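User: We ran a pulldown and think these components assemble together. Before we commit to crystallization trials, I'd like a predicted model of the whole complex to look at. Sequences follow.
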Amino acid sequence: MDSESGNPEFVNVVTMNGIVKRFPGVLANDHVNFSLRKGEIHALLGENGAGKSTLMNILAGLYRPEAGIIKVNNKPVSFSNPRQAIAAGIGMVHQHFMLVPSQTVTENILLGLDTPKFFLRLKEYDRIIADLGDRFGLEVDPTAKIWQLSVGEQQRVELLKMLYRGAEVLIMDEPTAVLAPSEIDGLFGIMRKMIDQGKSIIFISHKLNEVMAISDQVTVLRRGKVTAAGVRTKGTTIPELARLMVGRDVIFDLERKPQKPGGVVMEVKDVHAINDKGLPALQGASLYVKAGEIVGLAGVAGNGQRELAEVVTGLRKCTQGNILVQGEDITNKDARSGIRHNVSHIPEDRAHVGTAPNLSMTDNLIMKKYNRQPIGNGWFVNMHAAEKNSQELKDAYDIIAPSINTPVRLLSGGNLQRVILAREISALPALMVAVQPTRGLDVGAIEGVQRLLLAQREAGSAVLLISEELDELLALSDRIYVIYEGKMMGEVCDGNVEQIGLMMTGTPMKVE
Amino acid sequence: MDILVILQAGVASGTVLLFATLGGILNERSGVQNLGMEGMMLMGAVTAMLVTVNVGSPWLGILAGILAGGLLSLIHAFICITLQADQVVSGLALTFLGTGLSLVMGEGLSKAGAISLMPVITIPLLTKIPILGPVFFTNQSILVYLGYILTPLASYYIYKTRPGMHLRAVGEYPAAADALGISVYGLRYLYTFIGGLFAGLAGGTISLAISPGWFSDLTTAGQGWIAIGLIIFAQWDPMRGAMGAYMFGALRRLILDIQGPTRLFGLANPFYYNPYLGFFLQMIPYAFTIIVLIIGSQEANRKRLGTPAALNIPFIRGQRG
Amino acid sequence: MSETSSLPSAAPRRKLPFSVVVEPRLEETPKWLPVVVSLFAVVVALLIGALVLAFAGSDPWKSYAGIGKAAFGSWGQFSDTMVKAIPLMLVGLACSVAFRMRIWNIGAEGQFFIGAFFASSVVLIPILPGDTPRWLFILTMALAGIIGGALWGFIPGFLRAKFNVNEVITTLMLNYIAVAWNNFFIFAIWTEGGFQMSKMFPKNAWLPRLADMAAQVPFFRGMTTHLGLIFAIIAAAIVWFILYRSKWGYEIRLIGDNPRAAEYAGIPIKRNIIFVMMVSGALAGLAGMSEITGVVHRLQGSISPGYGFTGIIIAWLAKLNPFVVIIVSILFGALILAGREIQPSGIPKLIQGIILVCLIASDFLLRYRIRIIRRSEVE
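Assistant: Here's a predicted model for the assembly, 1212 residues in total across the polymer chains.
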């Protein structure tokens, strides 16, 4: 492959050589080399857990490598904190925005800087920041508080924060994950504008089409190692990159056997609900799921998906509307009544909602049946039955854990998800609500989860799949609803991506 | 029973709570709660007294008291910030430690006799203002005036200055502050220490100004805990904290003074030297704290953005939150 | 690397040879490790205490030896230690139950007083006449103590569940109110000849002591250990059974570890907060009852040298394990019994504080030394 690394025309702004970083039990970066040319967009491609974020966190001064040399503008550097990295012109926009919700845009941008020295004089700085925004096409109200902003706007604040600090190199960690297709185009526009202004960008992603669309060069990481270093994007293809990323040819042979759905299992009728901030999150959402079908819910993050899942599973009260499960109204009953009606729930946040980290695997696996025979017995928990349940599920779902008494916080992400799946599927659900079930898992684990969902469909369960991965929705769903600002924009049965993209940005489906 | 006299004494008495509350607000704004307030106040009170008795200067005494509170708070800082232990339990431990240590240091101190106290002054012109003059600016300890200055300063500091902005960031989203090179650990240590200094000042204010002397752990009589309640009531806002503190101060005075006069509003005063009803009067500040807490908590629930989001959560780099 | 990213055991073993070996070991925290670390913390605390004693001008080793001798020197002294330990056991259990659910009941002191008050009122109102049979007296008074404590626990529990009011402060405020309430009754209503105490309870209302059996077993002569010990041991067994074998205990543990997961599992959290506070209060109330019917035999002001607060330390030192609470209580009973003679008088309280500080600090050792071991094995 042609890497052109010796071409003197190009100036490397960043060079990383032989970077090694360990975490307990993982070699996150194994002698990684990486270089970024001035005025280019360099994509860093890899699966979840391949070590992309780790490498960039090192470059941004958050972690210190165990070995390796970093050069910025050909000068060796060693950052012991992010401030030094920023001073050297390297700014990172994290996947989870690092913004203080209760502070204004300007305050967030000024955080950690030496000026203003003592008194804030916000008015003065509001103006400066508005001007900076204009220059890069990053419009956002400097006096707004962060919690009032949309995700896209928050991303702009993050970019402004780095530009204000004079960053020459911008690291963007999965910036498109939270955006709708049209917003992604906007972001790419902004990125090109920044390149025009002389900046250089590192674009972390695991989405091949985006990498192809925006980058000049690609580096691929797999399990902490570089599998392709600085390949020209023009000279490669999506299948080639996919192979480099995954280590084998990716054949998603997920087969969705045609089958006729049964009766309606769950119906959401004109539901309204407010989010944690007290703002309206659902504004008249309606949908239904039949037995034996997977119904996808697509949408940009923060458009009410989480609230919808919570309302359906009894974790959130709705202010208006009805939820029917198997014909029975369970509106505003608690989670227990959902469980009683055989509603299973794979929550978005595995570690903080789906499991109790310090309790044993056994305790975690009986979470939803501790008060039912045979495990619940009168006032007591039959520990013998609980352990038997645990051993059976551990074997059936290949949960890798030292023992059934292991606290689940010690399990890996994939195994933790398997614990949850084992628990939720073994309840033989009539309805399964799966929220981001594959997020953060590696490819093998993702496939396993997706297969289990399909098996549920074949077994006749109704599955509501809420995901931000459009590919996943397209591969698994019989029908896809698109949610925008708490309302359904429409329903797609034929996998029309353009139609879905339009609806994700708030264009309702045309009625033919 | 003169209302103005009660209010004047109430402001004085409320100054103790004010210092403790201000310190607590700064402390908690950084994401660290210190339930050891009572212990730190006792340490402040006993140290201030001890130094004044032995050296003769209440100025040195108050300084020593302030420092003692600060030093004790460093133990809490170490345990919660460096060792990432539970802040509630650590705060309780600090209460035990401070109480025990102050009892040991104060052994025999209650018989120390009269000592020189912090000076009492009247502000020439301001004292002439009707109502406010006699209540706030007449015959008050110099420490009371310090309270008038510190409250708006703290408020301005938190909302309008760069270090104040950093303080808020560290308490709301430490990972964000950390990513921008703000030292989360450093600031948390600093503000826990400052909280301790304030608590020490509150203690010294008791023993050298408001109710001079050392009465073992009855010196504070739970005021540290009341202050912690006031922080919540104040929604971490210094001005509201001052309002609450003076209100409580007035209440405490009222309870003492109501037992004095024979007649109240033209009727026989049921509390007139009635030691039995006195027990119920004693309960009032504590019961009132609970009521105030209910109000404060309701409000916090409604606003959803009152409590520093990272309060009570240890910061570990590499973990989100 | 984000938390959710794939961790080693999901990865094929071939690729990352060391990572997989390590993870499982992490979990094998040996059972003895917490015990050793806690003991180590206590020893360190006692050493620091010795320094303080030395500063205060007394010979620390003599003081400690004195404590040991005064508490365990003879069977009679051991019996006295047990008398001090009984209320600690019950209060320690009270704290353990609440702490297990991460509800910070630091109002055991107040619940203790209200329990004592309720139990006394059976005799002093009187609810039962003075010649009531002993078993009925004891049963009624125990029940009254339990109800009183539960009631005093209900208030902060309800406020927390209903209004999200911080229970640390409410329970503490209720301590002061409970003491004032008790004082009112012993000063104003039930005072005996103007003294700050009620009249002596009739003998029928006393808990049986070992000394009562001295006629049959001469060895028990003069031993004041009373039936409360049996209460405490039974209570420990019940608490253990509730926590580890009952459905309710499962709910408590789940809420304590992760309230969001509990909510997700359909467990009513608010109701459980109230129940747990009531059980916690009931245990502390029972401690109050056992103290006045077993030791002082009247209602008076000074019935607790801070048992309610010592219970917090005991619960923590016992790592919330009910049976360990029983054992740890005996040690603290010794400290309280013998501590009365140590000068200056603040020393026992100070040492308790130092012990708690060292304990919390030592938890770090428990969580982090393991990581170092793990890391070195990676290399």
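Chain B touches chain C through 53 residues (CB under 8 Å). That may be worth checking against your pulldown data before setting up trials.

User: Thanks, that helps.
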